Amino acid sequence: MGPSEFDLIERFFSQRTIHRGDVPLGIGDDAAILTVPKGMELVAAVDTLVADVHFPAGAHPSDVGYKALAVNLSDLAAMGAEPAWATLALTMQRGDEEWVKAFGDGFFSLADQYKVQLVGGDTTRGPLSVTVQMLGLLPPEQALCRHGAQVGDLIYVTGTVGDAGLGLLIQQNQLAAPQSIRHHFLERLHRPKPRLKEGQALRGLATAAIDISDGLAADLGHVLHASGVGATLSMHRIPLSEAFTGMASEVDRMASQQDSLWPPHLITALSAGDDYELCFTIPPDRRTVFEALVRGFDCDVTLVGEIDMETGLRGKTSQGDVVAVTTSGYQHF
Ligand code: ADP
Ligand code: MG
Fold first, then answer.
1. How far is CA 104 from CA 126, 175, 223, 232, in A?
2. Residues with CB under 5 A from ligand 2 (ion)
3. Which of 8, 39, 86, 239 is deepest in the core (most CB within 10 A)?
């Protein structure tokens, strides 16, 4: 792209990124050159955020920059990989320097934290959209895949679920939250924490893993489908934040219909996306080793259920009654 405003953006990014020893050639040439260490495999993921589809066009650019990288880091976390390099394709109506600067604030705050070097990209004119490609490293045969869950495995979730979903409802003015907890939900929506340390620690322990981008029920569903198994969730164990629990009765009141035993706020927690927590499976004979390891994590980890032979997803009450969990066809309002 010719115009100087775009040249400025490239120069601006090349000046802000950290420099890694394994990048013989970064931003500035026709392509970047990266050194993959001997004995490691290259892991690649890409995600696009489109304005007014994945974020409001008026969203704060630093939040957009942060999240565009965070969702890709989360994919690497779910593979157990270590992030290394990123490329960035930016499409904008015009070269808005203020916007790009703030975008970089969010992007590089996270990139620097995880020692990710921005090694290249593309800048084009058009409707606002951001594509980040994330490249990382993994020892052979150590990846956490979706297809490895076995009957009897225990299902765990990091952190809490449903917070980003309430953040979205709050942002869209569909849900009113007290000022004191409003910030918590919006922070969870805009600034998800990729669980990289946790994902890497699960190598050799977890039989399957996925990051929760589309909701626990849907993403666990991908694992179940890929592994050819089913699961039963202990519904009273689904990890909810204190803030979420505080909003539960309000969420239940807003729901226009209740089509199962499960209260609407619980179905919301299972079906709301954008949390970017990890969901993974651990064989019961590794449980002790795993639970000792978890003490070093930055977040809580909760045992939420078990893999079983019968396909599909079921929920178990604290009394032990088992009822199907359906999040599709659920009318939110
Ligand atoms: P080419 O026409 O050869 O693709 P460009 O003018 O698109 O070159 O880019 C020049 C250099 O700037 C390349 O090294 C490219 O990787 C980098 N670059 C362009 N846009 C971005 C961006 N949004 N983020 C990071 N690097 C970028
Ligand atoms: Mg180009």
1. 19, 31, 34, 43
2. 122
3. 86
